[in-house]
Design goal:
The chain is of the alpha+beta class. The chain folds into two domains: 177 residues, Bira Bifunctional Protein, Domain 2 (BirA Bifunctional Protein, domain 2); 92 residues, Rossmann fold (3-Layer(aba) Sandwich). Helices cover 37% and strands 22% of the residues. The protein has twelve helices and twelve strands. A seven-stranded mixed sheet has the order 1-2-7-6-5-3-4. A five-stranded mixed sheet has the order 9-8-10-11-12, sandwiched between helices. The radius of gyration is 28 Å and the shape is elongated.
């Protein structure tokens, strides 16, 4: 948010969409799944207050985990805005004060410093108390209520697996309106006992609080190490194979030069080509091509150099065809289209 202000991103077409993939460092006590250093994939959409932004982020998160092989459920809540949230907090505090004796020592402190976090406490006795506590959704102003309803409608329409969690407050208190956390589908129902794979929400006041112009924003962070742990738990097979499409093989010095050039031309038009130019034997090159699972191998030998031709070997059928060298790219495109 500081970068947004500092670099005048307000002058760019809004919303500004940013991402980061970087290591993050944590000062507080490390525990299982919460290491000193971890990596996170962040998306931020700044300058748009429309609930479709949440819809888009939730969809991206859902699709991302689906694609890598993790089924998730997303817990959602709304924390309201500067208008309705203080009224709720007041009500919550007066409820909690009546139960103060039964709260854990940490929560007794939270009652003064950050009462919302009590809803988040992992102590059994505090959970019993927060289960009965007033819920923010009943205290939202009309604007926040509308916004939250629309976010949930997007989630419904996009078939995003979500559930409402009135105790979801997120660790940081800059959030406004929507907050969400992503859990493995198989995890226990009680989100407070599980470490989220990722999460996010809206932080409409943060840029203003940092001295910028009043600018709404919404974002999320997905933990890379946590996704890896989950992939291992789900025993998801990670394909080690790079998806090469074409192999360029050569035989002889002149052919090698021609193959080098062809290889670069293929790469330039976006074809994923593989090679091993230092290998002399055609057999070992074809073995490698086989291992890589390419569709076809392009073979240039001394004879082909002289004839201005090339051999195209279909790796599935094993059929080998001699074509005019000038038609190589067209033929390759034809083969890849039929895959
Ligand atoms: Zn509100
Ligand atoms: Zn507690």
């Amino acid at each position: 948010m500081r970068a947004y202000i500092e670099h005048g991103m307000l002058n760019l077409p809004q919303p500004v969409k940013l991402y980061t993939i970087a290591p993050l460092f944590r000062r507080e006590r490390p525990q299982s799944g919460r290491t000193r250093q971890h990596h996170q994939f962040d998306l931020e959409i700044i300058g748009d207050k429309n609930p479709v932004i949440e819809g888009q982020l939730l969809l991206i998160a859902h699709k991302f985990y689906q694609e890598i092989g993790i089924s998730v459920k997303i817990k959602i809540n709304s924390l309201g805005c500067i208008e309705c949230s203080p009224r709720y907090k007041e009500n919550l505090v007066s409820y909690l004060k009546g139960k103060k004796a039964k709260l854990c020592p940490d929560c007794k402190k939270r009652l003064i410093k950050n009462p919302l976090r009590i809803l988040d406490c992992k102590e059994e006795k505090c959970k019993i108390i927060s289960a009965e506590a007033p819920q923010i959704v009943d205290w939202l102003c009309e604007n926040c209520q509308d916004h939250f309803t629309k976010v949930l409608e997007y989630a419904d329409d996009l078939s995003i697996p979500y559930e409402l969690d009135p105790c979801l407050v997120r660790g940081l208190d800059y959030y406004t309106k929507t907050v969400f956390e992503i859990f493995p589908e198989s995890s226990e129902n009680d989100s407070r006992r599980q470490i989220a794979l990722g999460g996010g929400g809206r932080y409409d006041d943060l840029i203003y609080d940092f001295g910028g112009k009043d600018t709404p924003a919404c974002g999320m962070g997905l933990g890379i190490e946590r996704a890896i742990v989950q992939l291992k738990e789900n025993r998801v097979e990670i394909s080690k194979k790079q998806d090469f499409e074409i192999f360029v093989a050569q035989l002889g010095e002149k052919a090698r030069v021609k193959a080098l050039e062809l290889f670069e031309n293929l790469r330039q038009i976006g074809i994923k080509a593989a090679e091993n130019f230092s290998k002399g034997s055609l057999r070992s090159q074809l073995e490698l091509a086989n291992k890589l699972g390419v569709k076809a191998t392009l073979i240039i030998g001394q004879k082909e150099v002289l004839d201005k031709t090339i051999l195209i070997r279909n790796m599935e059928s094993g059929i080998q065809e001699e074509v005019d060298f000038s038609k190589t790219i067209a033929e390759v495109k034809k083969i890849l289209k039929n895959k």
